[in-house]
Structures are given as structure tokens and as C-alpha cells.
Amino acid sequence: MVRTRFTDLLGIEHPVVQGGMMWVGRAELAAAVSEAGGLGIITALTQPTPADLVKEVERARTMTDKPIGVNLTILPSINPPPYDEYRRAIVDAGITIVETAGSNPEPHMEMFKAHGIRVVHKCTSVRHAVKAEAVGVDAVSIDGFECAGHPGEDDIPGLVLIPAAADALSIPFIASGGFADGRGLAAALALGADGVNMGTRFMCSVESPISQQVKERIVEATEHDTELIFRTLSNTARVASNSVSREVVEILNAGGDFPAVRELVAGARGRHVFEHGDIEAGIWTVGLVQGLIHDIPTAGDIVRRTVDQAEAVLRERLALFEPVAV
Ligand SMILES: Cc1cc2nc3c(=O)[nH]c(=O)nc-3n(C[C@H](O)[C@H](O)[C@H](O)COP(=O)(O)O)c2cc1C
User: Which domains does the chain possess?
Assistant: First the structure.
């Protein structure tokens, strides 16, 4: 058992979290991760309405009675979803752990705290992590440049970001971005984190509710097969390299603006990829760590083998360096 401040805080067995993932973080996946002793997270905005989110949580509860979290991602948007109503739904569903992401969590803190909800804020820089601690979050999840989705604009990979966060934070924090196995968990612990958050690894699992072709593409792809889109708009996103993402990069690098790529990056096209397995149909999110992913196991197996391998690394491989008695 790898017990840390993070597992103690949230009452979970293993310091392994399945981060919120649009179109992927549904009940089956979250429940499978939690049932195996990690923390599974349902993605609020994947549900069409706040009422559907309550139903999704209830569905997950039929699959596990262990703690499950909900991700609430707040990003700038032309037609914002009703965030306040989703927040209310989280409370009404009796959720006790929330992963916030995308913007300052302060506006949510009062309501979540009033209902005894633990808040894990995900961010991509030490300064945002420190700010989150100051506004009262219980833990931080810090995403390095390797991560799938939005890595921020600082471009600091985990090897520097994680110990920098350890130096600056007093509350528990987990490392995110580029983790797929127990070597990663052991390394995160060595760098000062209290656990890991994984997205791409859980996306490529049996319970992940996306097309088999996408999972097979992740297994086949290497760490070279991602693109960073929206760099010129200071809203960088790491996504799978395909004809669409390469075209978006080309248009923006040539001076194009958002309207010039709007149709290419439409969310409906990305959703189509996940539902129908046509990996060239649109933009879809994936991380560098796909280069370390070679199979499609159950989410429970991912949790168990991550923890087992971390223990083996800590006990056996690193034990080789114990001082030799003379
Ligand atoms: C398909 C996909 C969708 C994602 N959607 C979200 C999201 O809606 N909100 C969020 O906070 N993070 C989202 N993420 C990021 C993950 O929660 C996590 O931070 C990231 O995947 C960690 O990097 P890794 O993929 O290298 O493990 C998404 C990741 C993936 C792969």
C-alpha cells in the first residue's frame, strides 16, 4: 500500500486519480477506477444537463460504493454552460470530492465548503497552485507540459514543475501529465508529489466509453504523435496529430485567426471521433504518454499494476542504492 497525505485526505486506498475527461469521464470508467481503490472522476460537462449529471452519479453509485469525484471545468466560451446549475447538481448528487479546472476555483469555494466537499484544483503552474491553496482548496493536481489537453503557456515539464510545486505548497498535491505506470508513480513520489493523475492511460482502458479504433490508435502511436494547437491564440491544447490538427497548426502559424479554424476544431467533430472511431474526423485530445501505452487493460488493472509496479520500484530497484555496510 502506498499511503500518502492525498489518500488520507480523500479516504481512498491508492494515490491514483483518473482526471476529468470530456466525453470519456462517464460512470463506467469512474466507477471502475474508484472500485479498484483509486479516485474515478465523472466529467460534469459531458452530461447534457445538470439533471443528467445527477443521474450519472447515481448510475456510478450502482457500480461502486467507494468515493467518486466530479470534474467541473470552466473555460472561456461564447455560449457558457450553466456552471452554477452544474455546481448545484454536484452538491445535490451528494458528491464529496470535486476536481476544478480551467480557471480560478474561488467562486465555487464557499458553496463546496458549506457542503463539506473536498476540492482538488487542477492547474498548470506553480503560481496558480499557490493561488488555489490561498483560496482554500484542499489539494492541487499540477499538470506538466506533457499532459493531454491544456498545458498552459509556460511549457514547464513535470521534472521541474513537480519539485517546484513541492517547494511552494503546504497542502497535498498530485502530479499530472505523462504518467502511465508505476515507474511514473514512484518518480512522482520521489519528486515530492502525493500521487498521480492520469488521463490518456485511463482513456485507453476497457471501460473507457470511446471507440475501440481510438484506443488502438493510442496503442500504435508514439510520443511524437501529438500537436499543440492554438499556440498563437495563447490557449494551447495538446491533441492527437492527424490531418485536421496539422491543418489547424498550419493555418494559425500562417497568421490565421480563430474563425479561420472554427469549423475544423468544432467539438461535434471531436465527439464524432470518439463515438465512431474515425480518427481523422476532427480534433481529439491525447497526451505524449501515449508513447508508453501498449495495451488496453481494465481500469482496475491499471490502478493495481501502477501501485504494484511503484512498490516494486521503491522496494527493489531503488533499494539497490541502500548504503552498503562496511
Ligand atoms: C480525452 C481527454 C479529455 C480531457 N478533458 C478534460 C476536461 O474536460 N477537463 C479537464 O480538466 N481536463 C481534461 N483532460 C485532461 C486530463 O484530466 C488530465 O489532466 C491529463 O490527461 C493528464 O495528462 P496525461 O493524459 O498525460 O495523463 C482531458 C484529457 C483527455 C485525454
Answer: 5-209 (3.20.20.70)
